Amino acid sequence: MDGAKESSVPLPFRRAVDGLRKARLRSGIEIDPVKPPQRLAPYAYALEAAVVDGEEDLADGRLILLHDPSGHDAWQGTFRLVTLVRAELEPEMAADPLLPEVCWSWLTGALEARGLGYGEPSGTVTMASSHYFGGLGERRPATQIEIRASWTPREGAGGVPDASAHLAAWCELLCQIAGLPPATPAEGAPGVVSLPQRRGPHHP
Fold it and tell me: What's the rounded Cα separation, in Å, for the pair 130 and 137?
């Protein structure tokens, strides 16, 4: 992004994006900026992440930061976080009838554990099972879970949300749905990763 375009981006959004770029996250998470959608809000920034074990992706997802300086009635604020998270489940987890409620609680619990204020949460938890036949009959049945959610982060000083902490909470959701144990308070110094900085925030 050239200097003229950068200066036209609202300062609160630039600071929120800087918070995403500088976030320090758990090891085992591969995360990269990607092209954001262009019609959801005047300004947007998107990330894709995967929880990786060797060459296997245990879970993956996308997190999008939206900003409308004029505010948005449905958001009740000027920022919105939108996410999609997916993972393949172990059979014993897939059989749990309370799993959708548990997965939603992972998201809200990760936000609340960091003392993050948020409003207007909404979303869906979807489970889809696949059974294989014929030439694929040797494969065991598989169940994938998908979480789609959005929430309005509370804005702090200067109208800027703590985007870094919201990203860390989202990564905790990603790790939990991948089957990893919750992070401990001691985690965060060695083995953390910071975001690569390939692209600037998008605006029309």
Answer: 11
Contact 87, 130 (CB under 8 A): no
Residues 33, 201 contacting (CB under 8 angstroms): no
* C-alpha closest to that of 85 among 166, 152, 178: 178
Beta strands in 73-183 (DSSP E): 77-89, 118-130, 142-153
Q: pLDDT value at position 133?
A: 85
Location of structure tokens 């939108």: 82
Q: pLDDT for 134-188, tens place per residue?
A: 888 787 777 888 999 999 999 988 899 999 999 999 999 999 888 887 665 444 4
Q: 81 with 150: CB under 8 angstroms?
A: yes
Place of tokens 């954001």: 36
